[in-house]
Each structure stands twice: as C-alpha cells, then as structure tokens.
Amino acid sequence: MRQYVILGTGPAGTAAAETIRAEDPKARITMVSREFTPFYLKPALADHVAGRMARDRLVRPDTPVLQDPETEVRAGARVYRVFPHESRVLLSDGTSLYFDRLLIATGAAPRMGRRAAELRHKVFTLNSFADAIRLAGAATGAGQWVLVEGEGHTGLEVVRAFALRGCRVVYLTSHTRFWPPGSPVARADVLEKLLSEKVEVLFDETVLDILDRNGEGYRVVTSSRRAIDAGLVCEAGALEPAVGYLAGSGLLVDGGVVVDRELRTNFDNIYAAGDVARVFDSEHGWIRGNFGWESARDQGRVAGHNLVHGGGREVGAAEPNFRKLTGTKLLERWRKD
User: Fold this and answer.
1) Residue 239 near residue 253 (C-beta atoms within 8 A)
2) Do the beta carbons of residue 277 and residue 259 sit within 8 Å?
3) How confident is the model at residue 336 (pLDDT cuts 50, 70, 90)?
4) How far is Cα 270 from Cα 204, in angstroms, rounded to an integer?
5) What confidence tens digit (pLDDT) does each residue in 30-74 have?
6) Domain assignments of the chain as residue spans, ordered by start
7) What is the mean pLDDT of the segment spanning 130-136?
8) Which DSSP symbol is given to 29?
9) Strand, coil or helix: 25
10) Contact indicator for 250, 84 with CB cutoff of 8 Å
C-alpha cells in the first residue's frame, strides 16, 4: 500500500488526489495545506470581495477527497523543508511525513513591491481564502478610495473587485506588465474599461512610503513623490511559484520546480503540477509555466496518473486555457448584472 503525500489542496493537488484514488484504490493519501479552509474556489475570491458571491459559496464541501476515509487532510500546516533522499517532508510544527510518492502543488504567491513588502503590516493581499474574508470585511464602501499596486492578471482582478464594489480605485502598475500581454488592441480595450469605471491608472509608479493617518486610512507616497490618501492599500503583483521551502533540497528549481512533460522532477518519485511547476522539454527546447485554475486541474490529473504508474501521460507545449482570461472573456468579468 503506497503512501502518497500531496503538498497543496488547490486544483492541481485535488485533481491529483482524485485521480490517484481512482487508479490506486488502496493508496494512503495525505494532503497538506497551510490554509485552514483548504478547498475553495480561488478564481471567485475577487467576486467575494466585490460582494457578488457569499462566503459559503466559495467553499467546496462536495470535494470528493473530504468524503474519502483513506485520505488525510492536514489543514493549517506549513511545509518547512523537503528531504528527497529521505522521502520525508518536515512541517513547521516539527511533524515529519514520509512518502513513497510526492506531489508538489503549492501554487504561487503574488510578488510584492520592494517598499510595500517592507511595510506589509499596512497592506492587504488577495491570494487566499483568509485574504478574501479579511478584505471583504474591511471598511471600504462605495465612494471610498483604495490604492492597488499590482500587475498582470492578479492586479486587474483586485482592481475589478474594488471597482465593482463602488470604490474609487487608484492603480499603480507598469506598461510592460499591464494585462493582457501580447495584444495592443486587447490592452487598449482593458485600459478603456478601467477608465470608464473611473479607475485612475498611474503607469510606472510604485509605492515609496505608506503613512498611517491616525487610524483613518493611509497616505501613500509614490515614486514620483505624489501623495495619495486611501482608506485601504492592496498589493497584487504577478504570481510567483511558492518554492522557498525547497531551498537546499536538491530539487531543481528555476523560476518554479523544473519538471519534464510527465511532470516528473529530477527525483523519480517526486512530481510537481500547477502554478508551482515549470515544464521543460529538452528535446524541443521549450519551457512554460501554468496559467489558471483549469490548466492546474488538468496538470493535476496528469500528475496523479503518473504518480501511480510511473509515467505515461504528458502535458502539451501550448497553454490551452490562456485565452479564457484575455480579450473579451476578460472584460465579461466586469459585468454588473
């Protein structure tokens, strides 16, 4: 009876667990999540902040692994180190988990601006269930000012959440990382939409300082020495694979956990999938990351099968779901009905 350990309970980890259970019915599966509510709809977090989705609708109580007595879910547990040569995962509370097969599916976290990172006790983020609950409960109503420093799809989603909530939003971003990439026409459409929603977009400005206005909001000083008063400050940088705990492990990491097309790492019994993985094809010379919930789920299914059988299924070179969050599909998420 094999022991599988899955780090992460997002779409990749959950899909892998379901696949493993279907193809290795007697397996023991342990899933680890640093979150206390591990199974939820991450793409809908911004909708909860916007007031368009209730908290209980974010949670996924029908997740099959929750009904599986042979699957242990360790919620509120942080991975501290991975020791591949010992087939062991060390949690921050000192607990060791031993595995026959390991899947790394810890996702990604938004990059923070340098100065905002130093002042992180004054800023919000939106990358977890707890973040969404905290933001939704913040005192930001119609007409109140919110400053968002961000980039990419992550930044745009946070701006959308507050704009739909009726807030006045100032968006600090960069021309090079403004979403979506690669299409000047689509980028112009998105910018036009932001301006129509009265979002003030400040290109190539960053947070220089955040001053507390006696508990009544903040004064943000930007890199151009512009002073902006806001009731709330949010950081929403582009996502970066969460790999800090892999330092010194011997696993190959280069902008994410490097895997082959079967999602296998440089250790035969360790795989990675979803936002944390970087797929490298040495034969054809391409490398790509994951993008989005559906792609992570697809990779999880591939990884689950290969964990059981030692390989056999591959991911493709193209990102099949990329266009779903660009162009007209992206703008549809701003509808207020």
Assistant:
1) no
2) yes
3) low
4) 40
5) 999 999 998 999 989 999 999 999 999 998 777 778 788 889 999
6) 3-107+242-321, 110-239
7) 93
8) E
9) coil
10) yes
- What is the total residue count of the chain? 337
Please check whether residue 13 is in contact with residue 302, taking contact to mean a CB–CB distance below 8 angstroms: no
Q: What's the token pair of residue 165?
A: 């909530």
Q: Angle at CA 104, nearest 5°, toward 101 and 106?
A: 150
Task: Just give the CATH number of 110-239.
Answer: 3.50.50.60
User: pTM (2 decimals)?
Assistant: 0.91
Parallel, antiparallel, or unpaired: how do β-strands 168-173 and 200-203 relate?
parallel
The Cα–Cα gap between 104 and 8 comes to 7
150 in Cβ contact with 235 (< 8 Å): yes
Burial (Cβ within 10 Å: 0-12, 13-18, ≥19) of residue 36: exposed
132 token code pair = 């969404």
Question: H or E segment at 74?
Answer: strand 71-75
At 259 the three-state DSSP class reads strand
Q: Assess if CATH 3.90.650.10 describes domain 3-107+242-321.
A: no
Distance CA 324, CA 334 (A): 14
Query: How is residue 23 annotated by DSSP?
Result: H
Contacts of 244 (CB under 8 A, 6+ apart): none
- Confidence class of residue 337 from pLDDT cuts 50, 70 and 90? low
